[in-house]
Amino acid sequence: MPRILIAEDDRVIRFSLAQNLADAGYEVETAEGVADARRLFDAEGFDAALVDIRLKDGDGLDLLEDLRKDVPQLPVIIVTAFGDSERTIRAMKAGAFEYLTKPFELDVLLNLLDRAVKVHPTSVRVPEANQGNQLVGASPAMLNVWKSIGRSAASPVPVLITGESGVGKELVARAIHDNAHPNKPFVAVNLAALPPSLVESELFGHERGAFTGAVARREGRFELAGDGTLFLDEIADLDLPLQTKLLRVLEDGGYERVGGSTRMESKARIIAATSRNVQPGQPDSRLREDLYYRLAVLRIEVPPLRERKQDIPLLVQAFLRRAGRSSRALSEGAMNRLVSFGWPGNVRQLRHVLENACVMSTAEVLDEAAFDLGTSKQATDVPTWQMPVASELTNLDLRENLERFERELIELALSRAQGNRAQAARLLGIRRALLYSRMLHLGMRGAEPVE
């Protein structure tokens, strides 16, 4: 019978998890804090561990790192009620088997545990996450990106980042680099922005006299990247002959400068990105199949903004803060308009629209009229900014959406009531006992039994 260690500070959740896992055929031991968990782990062997981030006497991620150091093959599932990019990256870098956010379905957990006790993931310890990352998002779609960044940072293999224009593919590349080796060079080149005649020289460098105008030897981007990261944006725009040369570099690290014969060695990690369809077998793919598979050892798909609209308020706050305009705010109608918009230009378009509004309006609170969204089609039937557009519901599980909307509504009520649950219940028009019951069901912190 597989043995599972549960480290969870909430007594009700800890008991419920233990009971459900025992009913599913697991032998379970529980701990409410780091010290208890370490004592149990030292005394007994386990096949997997389920660890909450916030424990009674410490941080669950510290416990994760200790467990993985002592027994690298131990699958550890991290659980939290709060989506946090830096912690997600740290957890996946430290070798977490998976990262779950509350509330989650019991079937999801049982499936994970079933896989965890059969699979032994590779453990790789790497430095702490860089605190300056510019990516923003706490939606389920972005949580998957954070986890992929953590896994990518723990391995030096090539990465292919795909997604529409403006979603932040270079930011993902920088996040991987910053979490893997932040003190080494990060060199980026947009292949679509270079004249075809100059791309080879830009990448590999050239010798003096290699062509008209080459009056001196010049280092290419591979040399400048050293043993850091070379980010090749819009890789599908690279001409086929140069794709062949790039494939050689990926295979054995070797290349020559334009006009030279001396073999150069590249130790740079390659991260590529594209907004085009590069899937092998597709008629419009412009990437060699062998190059695709060599680049896409790890692949990260960055979702468009329309698929993670609940991140828009977070993005707005981040953009205002970075622009030094933290004192500015948006009216409820303005936020609702931004969230209901289609955003064909994705995060880049949102940033530009917000910057324009801040420049053109002198008001401290920006209303709907402050935002120029052009003539692009937008939804008009979204009553609150927490809700996605109705068309998204056809692709999402209705029960998950209902619980997500319920959670966001409770969080909004608690925010307006400044954390007072009795007042929040009145705002929602329900009894306090029912509010507590729903918070407990959703795994929300602050759910205290009603006397």
Distance between the termini: 40 Å
Radius of gyration: 25 Å
Helix share bin: 40-55%
The oligomeric state of the chains shown is single chain
How are the strands of the biggest sheet laid out side by side?
A: 2-1-3-6-7
In short:
The protein has 451 residues and is of the alpha/beta class.
How would you portray this structure in words?
The protein has 451 residues and is an alpha/beta fold. It is 41% helix and 13% strand. It contains 17 helices and 16 strands. The protein has helices spanning 11-23, 34-43, 60-70, 85-93, 106-116, 140-153, 169-180, 196-204, 221-225, 240-252, 289-295, 312-322, 332-340, 346-360, 398-416, 421-428, 432-441, and strands at 3-7, 27-31, 48-52, 54-55, 58-59, 76-80, 98-101, 159-162, 186-190, 229-233, 254-255, 264-265, 269-274, 298-301, 329-330, 365-366. The strands form 5 sheets. Strands 2-1-3-6-7 form a 5-stranded parallel beta sheet, with helices on both faces. A 5-stranded parallel beta sheet has the order 9-10-13-8-14. Helix 1 (11-23) links the parallel strand 1 (3-7) and strand 2. The radius of gyration is 25 Å and the shape is globular. It starts with a strand and ends in a 10-residue tail after the last helix.
What topology emerges from the helices and strands here?
Layout: E1 3-7, H1 11-23, E2 27-31, H2 34-43, E3 48-52, E4 54-55, E5 58-59, H3 60-70, E6 76-80, H4 85-93, E7 98-101, H5 106-116, H6 140-153, E8 159-162, H7 169-180, E9 186-190, H8 196-204, H9 221-225, E10 229-233, H10 240-252, E11 254-255, E12 264-265, E13 269-274, H11 289-295, E14 298-301, H12 312-322, E15 329-330, H13 332-340, H14 346-360, E16 365-366, H15 398-416, H16 421-428, H17 432-441
Parallel strand pairs: 1-2, 1-3, 3-6, 6-7, 8-13, 8-14, 9-10, 10-13, 15-16
Antiparallel strand pairs: 4-5, 11-12
